[in-house]
Amino acid sequence: MDKGMVDNPELGYGLVAGWGPAEGGARPGFGWFFGGDAAINSYAMTGYGDFESMRAAFRFLAKFQRADGKITHEISQAAGMIKWFEEYPYAFYHADTTPFYIAAVYNLYRQSGDIKLIEELWPNLKNAYQFCIDNDSDGDGILENSKAGLGASELGSLLEDLHQDIYLAATNLEASFAIRELAEIMKDTQLRDLAEQKYQRAFASLNELYWNQTEGRYIYALTKSGKQNTEVTAWAAVPMMFGQLDARRASLTIRTLSSSQISSDWGARMLTNRSPAYDPMAYNNGGVWPFLTGFVASAEYAYRHNHSGLAHLRQLARMTFDHSLGFHPEILSGDFYRPLDESVPHQLFSSGMVITPFIRGLLGLRADAPKKSLMFSPQIPASWDKLSVRNYLFGKSSISINFRRTGLTSLSYEISKDDDDPIKLQFEPSLPAFARINRVLIDGKAARISPNQSDYLKPALSLETTLKRRTLIEISFTGGIEIEVPDSPTQTGDRTSSLKILEVMPSSANSLNLSVEGLSGKTYKILARAPNGIQEISGAAIKGDENGWKAISIEFPATEGDPVYQVKLIQIRPR
Asked: Given this model, what pLDDT does residue 457 score?
C-alpha cells in the first residue's frame, strides 16, 4: 500500500491506483492518481494507522477539485505537461468519487481525531456535498449516474438505461451522514439540518426503492424508465459494509452473494454467472474483483455472516502468495483462478481489501476518537484459540488486544493502551450459538450485561466500560455449539468447487441450521463441537473425531452431465 504514495514534482504528493507495465496496450498501468481508489484504499490505510499518507492523498484530491465541487476520478502523471483537464475526457468521469471522498475524509477524522484537517478541507467538503445536492434531480436524497457520471460500472450491459446504481446510492448516504456529523462540529447548523433531511430521505430511498420483494433481495440499480435493474451483482455489498440496510433483508441478500452464482473460490464476481450478460473475462460483466470481494466480506461480517466472511477473507489473503508475490491483481477470470491478461498485477484497492474486512469485520474495530469511543465487536473463528493485535491507532493513543480461549466455555479479552486518557469501550463479541452466559468479569468484578438469546443477527452480548490503561474482560458460559469450515486451498487454473455457507441460523427448536451449497457428486467436510456433545444431526453424517471436533460429512448426490451446485439444509442439535 505504501508503494502507492507518489510525489510528482509538478502535481504533488498523492496516492495512485497501482503499478503495472503498459506494454503494448492502451492502458497506462494504472500508475495514475485515482480519486475513487484513494477513498476505497483509505479504509485500509487509516485502519492500520497511516494517517499521514491519507492526509496527503485527500489534500492532493482537494487541490484538483472542480469548481462545481466534483472530485476528480483520475489524473495522469503527465497532467502537469499537457492540458489534461481541458482536452481529455477522463478527469471527472465518475460520480462516486465525490460522495466517497466526503465519507473517507470523515472516516479518517473518526480514527485520527484530526480536527485541523477538517477545518482545512471544510470548504472542499461543503463544495463536494453541494455537488451531490445539485445532481439529485428526483429528490430522493441521492445523486444520479444519469446526471453526475459513472459509478459501479464503466462499460457493458449494466449501463443500459441506468439512472442510479446502489454503489453510488450507498456512498451518497454515507456522505450525508458524514456531513451531518462534521457540520455539527463546524457549527454550521443550517448545513447540519439539510444533511439530516437528505440522510433520512436517502436512507428510506435506498432501503425501499432497491428492495425487490419478489426476489427477496436488494437489486443493482434503478433505471431511467422507472423500473428496477434486478441483475444480481456484488455491488449490493457496499451499503451493507456501512450498515445502511435493514438487517433481515440484508441477510437474505447475503445468501445470494455467498452463493456460487456470485462467489467463486477466489472471490466475488461482479455479475452473477447465471446472467445472460455474464462473461468470465469481461471487465464489468463477470470478472472477479478483489476489491469487491472485500466489500462482500465486510458486508458479511457487518450482518454476522462470519463463516462466509471468513471464506472470502481467506481467499483475499491467499492471493498475496499466488500471483505477483506480496501484491494483489486487479481482476481475475470469473471461471478460472487466474488473473486476466489485462489485469494490473499490483492493484492497491485489491491489496487493501485484505486489511479492511479484517479490521472492520473480523476484529470489529470502529473508532470514534473525537468522541473518545471505541466499538470492539469481534467475530473470531471458532478454531482460533488466541489472537494478538498491536498498535491500533486511536487518535494519539495506541491500543493492543490479546484474546485467549480456555477450553470450550471461557473467553478472555485483554485490551490495553499506552496512556491513561479514558475512552468508552462498547464491547459486542460473538459467542457460540445457544451459549448461556454464566458471568462476565471486568477486571475481576461482575459486570452488568445485556445478553441476547433471540436474534442471531445481533451480538450475543453487549456491554460498556471505561478503558484507561488496561481492561481485562472474562466471559464464561455453558452449552453452545460452533462450527468450522476447513479452508479449501485453490491452485492457479482451478474452477470453483468449494462448499458455500449461505447462512448459519439458530432455530427455536434448539438446532443449528446450516444452509449450504455444494457441487453435485461431491462430499464435503465441516467440523462441529459443543461442550455437552452433539445429540442429533440431519442432512449430513458424523464421520469421527478430530482434536475435539466432530467431523461431519455432507454429500451431494450426483446428477447427469456436468456437476452443478445444489442447496442443502443441515440441522445440528447439541445436547
From this structure: 83
